[in-house]
Amino acid sequence: MMTRRRPDLDFRLLGHAIQHTRMFEALLTKRFPPKADFNFDKAIWSVFDSFLDVFINAQEKTLNEFLEGCANKIRSGNTTEVPSRECSTHAVPFSSSADMFLLLKKVITECSKLSSEPDALLKDVVGVVRVCLRNYAHGCLTAFLPTAHGQQSSSSTANLFNLIREDTSVLRLTPDQQFLTCCILATADWCAETTLQLQEKLAQRLPGVDLSQEMETFYGITNQALAVLVQDLEGACDAALQAIAKVTWSAVDGVGDESPFIGAIRSHLRGTVPRLRDLLSDRRKYFAHLCLKLATQLAHKFVGALFRCKPISTHGAEQLLLDTHSLKSFLLQMPSLDSAIAAKPPTAYVNGVSAAMNKAEMILKVVMSNVETPEDFVEHYSTLLPESNTSELQKVLDMHGMKKVEQTAILQAYRLKFGAAADATPAVPVGMGNSLSATQALNAVVSMAADGLAETTSMKRLEKLVKRNF
User: Fold this and answer.
1) Cα–Cα distance between 173 and 60 in angstroms, integer?
2) Domain contains 164
3) Are residues 277 and 185 in the same domain?
């Protein structure tokens, strides 16, 4: 009969029938204890196992409706789902993240009561869990992050991000948008941690359960959120960096205080970085990674701006060297800007920033050096910039203002000294890349945390609730 009416089967009705069947079998087993020739335990219950796809389909529908509701709440700015900047001093995970894991916990618990072989049904449920986690990651988190082009990945979320544009197409975020981006980061981080806990619980019943791809997805979103914040910060510094090449450095005949463009960079970052530090106060490891990525990418852009300054007089190079030192000192202090607690920056951060800015200093020292013979110049250049190549050397020679004949002799001497390695691509310091993979970002974050940046979690009560009795 059940086979004939399979399309009409309802999950609730099926569950009700299974519950009463189990009660009936329990009474029979109590009245007639199992013997060699008969055993009433699961004698009828097992018949329902082949129809439990009804349960799986029902849970998929419930979870999809839940995720759609979450996305609609985020899209509409519902205060029960989207945290308010006015009501919170730091970024907090979306409430739906905890609701999702509680719902998944309920599904896992119910599957243990329905099947006579619960572990067999659990395998199917794990597939549902994977799909739910991925759909939440993409539909409720990634979809609401601005993209690199200043648009959102979901056109229906235009009301959430009204991006501010100045003279360029660089992405700019308002304080509310920065807050929401940090909340998405916090949500993804919390989901990744809780997914690991869920995997450990499931592995107790199903050895070999692997949710690493889902964790990688969530950590990837934290990396995307950091990239959005970094792009916003460095984009606001572009005007100051572009101003460097507009100065006639060949006409500079003395060294004074730091140049105005350094003050402009300092002013912008001083007004924004402390706010992000407060927003990420519960996830300081990510703030440390944000600072490292921002500082090294700014250093990379600064070096690019220096290459566009040509020619440069000796006094001009000295002024730029002073500016470079000022920028380096500021970037090293950036993680603790305007902080009531003077904390020493992590060693990984200091090393990353120093490596990035040292290149700018070495370039300017080469520009300031006197040219005697091509061989002496190449020796001096390779000592200061051992990981360079002919392309960079050409740019430095242009900055130096050398004649083409002199440049040709030096380039030939450089190629003679290094051979094929002369045209190799220079190594990129840590943090200078345009993007990191989720795994690289996670490794960088973990190294920051291990270097003295302890993290606190604002959802301990919810974590305990979610972890309990999966």
Assistant:
1) 36
2) no
3) no
Q: Both 251 and 194 in a single domain?
A: no
* Residue 166 confidence (pLDDT): 39
Residues in the chain: 470
- Using CA atoms, how far apart are residues 110 and 54, in angstroms rounded to an integer? 13
What six digits make up the tokens of 326?
């000022």
What is the domain range of residue 346? 236-428+437-448
In a domain, 227, yes or no: no
Are residues 181 and 40 located together in one domain of the fold? yes
Q: Do 214 and 318 belong together in one domain?
A: no
Neighbours of 464 (CB within 10 A): 9
Q: Which two tokens stand for residue 98?
A: 């905890």
Of all residues in the chain, the percent with pLDDT exceeding 70 is 73
Residue 229 lies in a domain: no
Question: Measured between alpha carbons, how far is residue 433 from residues 208, 344, 467 in Å?
Answer: 35, 25, 37
- pLDDT, residue 427, reads 60
Q: How far apart are the first and last CA of the chain?
A: 35
Residue 454 placed within a domain? no
Domain count, the chain: 2
Hey, is 18 helix, strand or coil?
helix
The pair of structure tokens assigned to 456 is 């606190």
DSSP H or E stretch at residue 150: none
Do 198 and 307 sit in the same domain of this protein?
Answer: no
* Residue 267 CB burial class (10 angstroms; 0-12, 13-18, ≥19): exposed
Do 65 and 209 lie in a common domain?
Answer: yes
For 64, half-sphere exposure in the C-beta direction (CA atoms, 13 angstrom radius) is 8
Distances (CA, A) of 83 to 2, 151, 180: 48, 22, 8
| Phi, psi for 403 (deg, rounded to 5) | -75, 160
8 Å CB contact between 136 and 219: no
- Cα 431 to chain centroid, rounded: 13
- Per-residue pLDDT at 374: 92
Query: Do 292 and 441 have their domain in common?
Result: yes
Residue 369 sits in a domain whose CATH number is 1.10.357
Q: What is the pLDDT of residues 64-84, one digit of tens each?
A: 999 999 999 988 877 777 777
Spatial separation of the C-alpha atoms in residues 118 and 109, rounded to whole Å = 10
Q: How far is CA 17 from CA 9, 115, 210, 301, in A?
A: 11, 12, 33, 68
The rounded distance, in Å, linking the Cα atoms of 24 and 12 is 18
Report the number of secondary-structure helices (H) and strands (E) in the chain.
16, 0
9 and 97 fall within a common domain: yes
Question: pLDDT at position 154, please?
Answer: 45
Positive/negative CA dihedral, 351, 238, 236, 229: negative
What is the C-alpha to C-alpha distance for residues 361 and 167, in angstroms, rounded to an integer?
A: 31
